[in-house]
Each structure stands twice: as C-alpha cells, then as structure tokens.
Sequence to fold (170 residues):
Amino acid sequence: MNREQIIRHRIQLLTWFFIVGLVISGATAIPLVTELDWLVKITDARRLVEPPASPNPPVWAIWLIKVQAILQETSDHHPILFYGTDWLAFGHFVIASAFVGALRDPVRNRWLFDFGMIACVLVIPFALVFGAVRGIPFWWRLIDCSFGVFGFIPLWFCRRWTMELERSGR
Fold:
C-alpha cells in the first residue's frame, strides 16, 4: 500500500468510528427509562442508597436514583416530553449521515471535519452552561464534555490527513 492508500484507509476508519459513535449516542437518547433502569441495576445504586444502606451513600448513586424516579414519573405522566429526545436522536442520525460525504471524497468534503471539530468544541461550553442551569452535577457535565473531546480527536486526525492528501495533489 502506498502512502495515499494508507491515509485514505485511516481517514475512512476514523470517519466510520465517528459515524458509529454519533449513531450509538443518538440511539441511546430514545429508550431513556429502560437504560437508566438498567444502569441503576448494574451499578447496584438502589442498594447503596436505600436502607439499610450506609449512612453516607455515594453522591453518584443518589443522583442516579433521583434521575430514575424523575424519568419514571415523566414517562407515566408526561410522555410527550420524550419526543424531544427522539428528535435529539434524529439530529445525531442526520449529522452522522452527512459524514458519508467525507467517506466518499474526504478532500472535497474536508469542511465536514472542520464542522465536526467546531461542533465538538461547542459541546464543552454547552454542557457546562446548560448543565449548570438544569442542575446537572459537575462530574456528569464533565462526562458530557468528554463526548466533545473524544469526537474531536478522530476528526482532527482526519482533517490533518486530508490536508496532507490535498497538499500532495491527490
């Protein structure tokens, strides 16, 4: 394999990684109640919080149980609110589909990597500001910020390699 083929292969792999990450992230926005029930179960959060639990249960477990109760109440009494997370998932799927253009012709569609990196950077202030407004614990906002960081890295490499292809005239 020559250098151009190696670079194109790397770009494809990381672009697929980004696309799959967007699709999975979007898909997890749909079954929130089920997912949180599952998370509470596998972390054993309920046992850590409810009596006869320790007098000082972990903050994360308390928060998970609180969110689980709120989601269940919302599901029982206001299920229409979940329509917003359905649209959140749709947005992830649409953005992921746009990156097919980068798979087809990364040099011509280099702007997608720029767009994706900008979006990833914007995840950080968005999560920090709106997480604070909504009362999301800081440690959870950092988890949300990590999506921007972990999305930025493969896109940065793709952009760098695409520019190398462009400079070499390929």
Remarks:
- Residues 3-167 form one domain.
